[in-house]
């Protein structure tokens, strides 16, 4: 049972293309969202399957649920360098300026900023528990 305003968490990561035409690894290839539950759902969003390599996702009806998750402050997005990934995606999508980035991306938790004893060598479920200070049902 979920309570109104209860904080939830998901894993968040972006993978980048390794194409010769993108020698700087700046072209986002896939967005990953993962449940902290070992057998929970995982979402893999292949950006290269969208027109213009996903650059025009904002405003598309089929993407509104994704953006509802990304900007929801009650759903923490946990992973390595998630803030940098969010800024990079925002830039890719044409979102400039910190106030606009935070409008589209809320609740980002970078694992690098968490104490090592809380998150070091743990699976996603344990890392989310370390961030939330409780295990998810």
Write a structural description.
It contains five helices and five strands; from the N terminus they run E-E-E-H-E-H-H-E-H-H. It has helices spanning 64-70, 82-92, 98-104, 116-119, 124-132, and strands at 8-16, 28-34, 42-46, 75-79, 108-110. A five-stranded mixed beta sheet has the order 3-2-1-4-5, with helices on both faces. The model has no long low-confidence stretch (mean pLDDT 79).
Compose a concise summary of this entry:
The protein is an alpha/beta fold and 137 residues long.
Taking the alpha carbons of the first and last residues, their distance comes to 8 Å
> Beta-strand level of the residues, as a percent range?
15-25%
Instruction: Specify the helix fraction band.
Output: 25-40%
- How many distinct helices? 5
Largest sheet geometry: 5 strands, mixed
Assign the structural class, choosing from mainly alpha, mainly beta, alpha/beta, alpha+beta, or little secondary structure.
alpha/beta
What is the gyration radius calculated from CA atoms?
15 Å
What multimeric state do the chains show?
A: single chain
Ranges where pLDDT stays below 50 over 5 or more residues in a row are none
Mean pLDDT: 79
N to C succession of SSEs? EEEHEHHEHH
Strand numbers in spatial order across the main sheet: 3-2-1-4-5
Strand tally is: 5
Shape: globular
């Amino acid at each position: 049972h979920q309570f109104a305003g209860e904080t939830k968490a998901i894993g968040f990561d972006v993978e980048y293309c390794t194409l010769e035409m993108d020698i700087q690894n700046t072209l986002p290839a896939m967005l990953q969202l993962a449940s902290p539950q070992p057998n929970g759902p995982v979402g893999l969003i292949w950006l290269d399957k969208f027109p213009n390599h996903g650059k025009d996702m904002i405003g598309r009806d089929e993407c509104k649920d994704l953006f509802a998750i990304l900007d929801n402050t009650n759903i923490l997005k946990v992973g390595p360098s998630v803030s940098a990934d969010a800024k990079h995606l925002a830039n890719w999508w044409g979102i400039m300026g910190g106030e606009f980035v935070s409008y589209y991306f809320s609740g980002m938790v970078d694992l690098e900023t968490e104490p090592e004893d809380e998150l070091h060598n743990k699976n996603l479920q344990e890392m989310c528990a370390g961030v939330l200070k409780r295990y998810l049902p």
